[in-house]
């Protein structure tokens, strides 16, 4: 399960980030995901829930 972080950006309500993490030999990697949700806007709770569900689809 990816960590969920809060941010204060206004331009986007949510974003799913991925980071490739290579092993010591740089021959294989795994992907580390995170989800960020903006809390800058004053929106009803269902908007945040919808945004979170949308970002989880990308995961």
List keywords for this structure.
59 residues; alpha+beta; three-stranded mixed beta sheet; 1 helix; 3 strands; 24% helix; 39% strand
Structure description:
- This protein is an alpha+beta fold and 59 residues long.
- It is elongated and about 45 Å long.
- The protein has one helix at residues 45-58; strands at 4-7, 14-22, 29-38.
- The protein has a 3-stranded mixed beta sheet with strand order 1-3-2, covered by helices on one side.
- The model has no long low-confidence stretch (mean pLDDT 92).
Structure, briefly:
By secondary structure, this protein is of the alpha+beta class. The protein has one helix at 45-58; strands at residues 4-7, 14-22, 29-38. A three-stranded mixed sheet has the order 1-3-2, covered by helices on one side.
Question: How many helices does DSSP assign?
Answer: 1
Low-confidence stretches: none
Shape: elongated
Radius of gyration: 14 Å
Average pLDDT works out at 92
Main β sheet profile = 3 strands, mixed
H/E series, N to C? EEEH
């Amino acid at each position: 399960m990816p960590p969920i972080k809060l941010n204060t950006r206004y331009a986007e309500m949510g974003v799913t980030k991925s980071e490739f993490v290579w092993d010591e030999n740089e021959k294989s990697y795994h992907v580390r995901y995170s989800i960020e949700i903006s809390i800058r806007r004053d929106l009803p709770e269902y908007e945040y829930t919808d945004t979170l569900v949308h970002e989880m689809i990308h995961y």
